[in-house]
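Schema walk-through. Below, the input block comes first and the output block second. Nothing else is stored per chain. Lengths vary across the set, and this one has 92 residues.
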Amino acid sequence: MHSNIIKEAPWVLRMVLRAIFKVIFRSPAKATLPVVYMAISEDFNEKTNEYLHMFKNKKMDSKVYLAEEGSKLWDRSYKLWKSVDDKAEMID
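--- output ---
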């Protein structure tokens, strides 16, 4: 997604990266359309393990189906959250 992540880069680098981002990446408005579509469309009602990349079905990495990998991601995400917010609480 072509976000404004480069806004703090030096001017010359920002100009080069902006041109590259414009060609390669989609705008936030366009990049989020598949997510919104999947969230509200009846086509994905009660479906799981689906992934759209530019409105095309895309196979996910096999690790996403492993429960232990999901647990690792959950635990690491919580630790990261806790490192920036001491009021963070784990919800099961």
